[in-house]
Amino acid sequence: MRILALLMILAAATHAGAAEPSNNQRRPNIVLLLADDQRPDTIHALGNPRIETPNLDRLVAEGTAFTRAITAFPICLQSRIELMTGCTIWRGEKYAPAKRDTSNIVPWAETLRRAGYRTWHVGKWHNAGTPRDWGYEETRGLYVSGGKETQGKGLLADDRGRAITGYRGYVFKTDDGQTEVEKGIGLTPNISDYFGDAAVEFIDTKPDAPFFLHVNFAGPHDPLLMPPKFAGKYRPAEMAVPANFLAEHPFDHGNLRGRDELLWPWPRQREEVQDDLATYYAVISHLDQQVGRVLAALERIGQLDNTLLIYTSDQGLAIGSHGLRGKQNMYEHTIEVPLVMRGPGVPRDVRCNAQVYLRDLYPTTCQIVGVDVPPSVEGKSFVPVLRGEVSEIHRFVVAYFRDVQRMIRTDRWKLIEYPQAGRTQLFDVKADPDELHDLSEAAEWADTRAKLHEQLHSWLREHGDPLEAR
Fold first, then answer.
1. Is the pTM of this model over 0.85?
2. Which residues of 345-363 are buried (b: 16+ CB within 10 A; e: fewer)?
3. Please, which residues have CB within 8 angstroms of residue 68's CB and are 6 or more apart in sequence?
4. Tell me: the pLDDT tens digits for 336-346?
5. Pairing state of beta strands 405-409 and 397-401?
6. Are 71 and 359 in contact (CB under 8 A)?
7. If you write DSSP's letter for every residue of 314-334 in order, what string do you get?
8. Are the C-beta atoms of residues 88 and 397 closer than 8 Å to each other?
9. Which of 108, 150, 310, 369 is deepest in the core (most CB within 10 A)?
């Protein structure tokens, strides 16, 4: 009966514009919690026995977990552009706030604001302009680059004494641009607390209108710093090195000299992977505590059951898999993201293997809450999957990184092409989820490779990939 009731709620919606709530019915709130560089295999309830994530486990038990969700462009800025515009990067990156009137791209927050939502932003921001330019009415806990005056200040080394190269000079600022120097410069061990504080402050205002709260966490992105009271929680010697650990990647995939990859020396050492995984897991567990605080705040104001809560990440991370440290690759540990949804219209305790993109969240949430989706949005609503009407909305998904990597993945197969390196990989991800066996040269799969190649390039041409025009 409970599932039937949820399906009846969703049945009232259409992609073009769901039925308007009655005068005495408040639309559901939307809370988006976005981690930074969190692998998809780092939630206890989804199969990782080592990590402790009780609040994420609660979301899994009370909602739907999408186990094959992906980002299309595995790097922070571009991934977030797709998320906030609902467009592929080749359209979304053209969005410039100063040209709002000449662009038909309407960001997610702006669409909700026009529909009567309070729109709030918390946390990391390094996209064009400011959150206000993208439709957010108010910001707390804004975390942005501080400019030249902050360079050389803050922590200069991580917990293992390595020079910090990520988030150098970032600071917290108030909504009117004042630097909150008391919160430090750069990433700090307790930074997730500040984001949790800001999110709870917004919720505790008890708004009398529905709200969209978008929280961008900075963890578990490097530099990896042990959160307060977490020292010793995860012992490096007890951390399992990824099954697809390699000392070196077999060829230059187009980013071997990128900042992320230079965090570790070559060849990769198992002990270094274990050390970083111990801190990485601690940062995620600390972030999980903030999820619990958000849940408690929503319960406190009586809005938990009227809130569509989404937890995900902008991309995953290699952290030792395939001989890589960073995120600029097409392997499952990186293009896949954790994605859990809880709230109105979302079945409870369900694992869903439908392939969905981060950019699909924009039209999906709009359909659930009854807001028209702008025609500029290229993402697809996966409400039909939640309803149980279909098992998939994408026959295949495509990902890309600059001009050096392109990927297509079906239910079974993944083809990765490296235009600059002149290399190709083919994986049977059903039989070989760790992508250990490249089948691209196997004669028996030549037809499969050729078919995937044609599907990939047809899609890329249709969506305006600049490489296809060369």
1. yes
2. bbbeeeebebbbbbbbbbb
3. 336, 353, 354, 355, 356
4. 999 999 999 99
5. antiparallel
6. no
7. S----TTBTT--SS-S-SHHH
8. no
9. 108
